[in-house]
Amino acid sequence: MVSGLQWWFSSMCTAFCITFFSFTLLFSLFSLLIFFLRLKVGCNCEICQAYLTSSWTKEFHNLCDWFTHLLQQSATGTIHIHVLGNTITANPENVEHILKTRFENYPKGKPFAAILGDLLGKGIFNVDGDSWEFQRKMASLELGSTSIRRHAFDIVNSEIQSRLLPLLSSVSREQRVLDLQDVFRRFSFDNICKFSFGLDPGCLELSLPVSELAEAFDLASKLSAQRALASSPLIWKLKRALNLGTEKQLKQAIKMVDALAQETINQRREKGFSDSDDLLSRFMGTINDDKYLRDIVVSFLLAGRDTVASGLTSFFWLLSQHPEVESAIRDELERVIEGSSDDRRQQFATFDQLRDMHYLHAALYESLRLFPPIQFDSKFAFEDDILPDSTFVRKGTRVTYHPYAMGRMERVWGPDCLEYKPDRWLKNGRYVPESLFKYPVFQAGKRVCLGKEMAIGGDEMCGSGHNQPVQYPGSQSESSTEVRSWSYRQRPRWLTSSSSRKWEDS
Ligand code: HEM
Questions:
Q1: Distance of CA 209 to the CA centre of its chain
Q2: From start to end residue, where is composition biased (Polar residues) (predicted)?
């Protein structure tokens, strides 16, 4: 009787599994079929066919470079990828229209909110309307104050002195090769966690430890982004409902992020938050809902980690290719530090001295022009619209502005647009800002990046310490975005620098 029951039960399980997997497979195939049918029926134009057949890969390494080429060729600086329902523009007037003039017509939209919703929840990065406005107001108040900028400066300063420098010193002593991008990711993760939660994951300790939070956060970001690659959102939604494959992994990774965030919130409540400077403590003064607090803080982690790491990596790579820029930064640093009335021994420019480093500022802005950490950004049109260059935008379709392509447009930056020339930002030795609609590296208009000043300040602190010869295993022949490691030929001299000491020539 018992074995009969077991047999019945196992047959039912087998039947259920077969039905379930057949259904999932058929459903996926059906979605793919619909997707391809729609694409084929949708458009036969040259660009769409090159996209569908991937023939663009014969000439270009990545989509960004191909889109840049198409945008350079376009008379209006705007192109359409019909099969993706995407209008892409590198025209500053269009950018101003989308990000400022008709801001209300170009929200982030539901498709992206759904894709990132499980990780970011209702955090500022992922919402539109009232919820965005509320967080924006609060965050602007908090981040706009000089006190929090000084606090951020102190965090970065301490991370550089107690971790980054000892690490570089040890690597250079042992003549090891270092993956600088990995170092900067650890550096920015430590900084943004300390800044957001008041929590130190210690990723940049000498042993380069694995951080559970960093790993869970990486995995969750990667898997969330992968959702966008599914041929139809129904596929990942179904997988999520059934807790299968990558969706199961994503759920576990988010659970880990949630647990760590909750633990931090609890600790803050126990210890009291009124005396702490971190962002979470500041928000806790006004918000009681733990889930909301978690969402806000996770959005900041996403906003301030890879952007900063990517910006620093490209900056240092460009400096290694342009020794004349590196020595101009050194000269400026020397002038600023030596001109200071403060006669204490200094390793770095102070918070106030950094503001006088116009050339460094220009060198950093110029590096972000060529290698913006966020290469493109999309919105969804709420209603039909016409852009200033007469491009028609249909309701519900995607509109993308492309900072990476804009940095490479002759009509925006002149015939030398592909060259790394900090001087283009200087007038009589002083930094002169450009319109953010021409340079939407930090977005522009109402949703302009809230961490811009802090990111620039942090990068400049690193840049103001850059004073050592570097040698790349990869050379200029490698794709600029792929070269990610270098080795120090000798001990970085900035480790022992002081205000009374002159930089040596390499
Ligand atoms: C070089 C470094 C950085 C770059 C290039 C950068 C760029 C950007 C861009 C392009 C956006 C718009 C994204 C979108 O709406 O989809 C943005 C938004 C934002 N950024 Fe940054 N960011 C950087 C660093 C930071 C840092 C360090 C913080 C935090 C301390 C931060 C906080 C934010 C926030 C809160 C938003 C959302 C603003 C809103 O939606 O109203 N960013 N950033």
A1: 23
A2: 466-488
Q: How far is the CA of 82 from the centre of ligand 1 (A)?
A: 29
DSSP H helices, 371-450, are 403-406, 410-413
Ligand 1 centre to CA of 302 (Å) is 9
Total-model pTM: 0.84
User: Token match 């969330």: residue?
Assistant: 224
Rounded Cα distance between 269 and 261, Å, is: 12
Residue whose C-alpha is closest to residue 454's, from 193, 185, 156:
156
**Ligand 1 mutation target, pool 126, 302, 307, 367, most atoms within 8 A of CB:** 307
Q: Which domains does the chain have, with CATH numbers?
A: 121-304 (1.10.630.10)
CA of 423 to the centre of ligand 1 (A): 26
Structure tokens given for 12: 């039912």
Cα–Cα distance measured from residue 45 to residue 58, given in angstroms and rounded to the nearest whole number: 18
Q: What is the spatial distance between Cα 168 and Cα 284, in angstroms, rounded to a whole number?
A: 37
By most ligand atoms within 8 Å of CB, the mutation choice from 145, 449, 459 for ligand 1 is 449
CA distance 101 to 379: 14
Pick the residue whose CA is nearest to atom 16 on ligand 1: 377
List the residue whose alpha carbon is closest to atom 41 of ligand 1.
447
Kindly give the number of the ligand 1 atom that is closest to the alpha carbon of 139. Answer: 35
DSSP state of 187: H
Token pair 């300040």 in the structure block, residue: 457
Buried b (16+ CB within 10 A) or exposed e, 159-195: bbeebbbebbbebbeeeeebebbbbbbbbbbbbbbbb
Q: Give the position, in ligand 1's atom list, of the atom nearest the Cα of 373.
A: 5
Q: Is 307 in the pocket of ligand 1 (CB under 6 A)?
A: yes
Q: Give me the tens of pLDDT residue by residue for the chain, a chain 506 residues long.
A: 556 667 666 776 566 656 666 666 666 666 655 555 554 446 889 999 999 999 999 999 999 999 999 999 999 999 999 988 999 999 999 999 999 999 999 999 998 899 999 999 999 999 999 999 999 998 898 888 888 888 898 999 999 989 998 998 898 888 888 899 999 999 999 999 999 888 898 999 988 888 888 899 999 999 999 998 777 889 999 999 999 999 999 999 999 999 988 888 888 888 887 777 788 888 888 888 999 999 988 998 899 899 999 999 999 999 999 999 999 999 998 888 876 655 555 667 788 888 899 999 999 999 999 999 999 999 999 999 999 999 999 999 999 999 999 999 999 999 999 999 999 999 999 999 999 999 999 999 999 999 998 899 888 888 776 544 333 333 333 333 333 333 322 222 222 222 222 222 22
75 DSSP assignment: S
Residue nearest to atom 12 of ligand 1 (CA): 443
The residue with tokens 């965030």 is: 261
Alpha carbons 450 and 32: distance in angstroms, whole number: 39
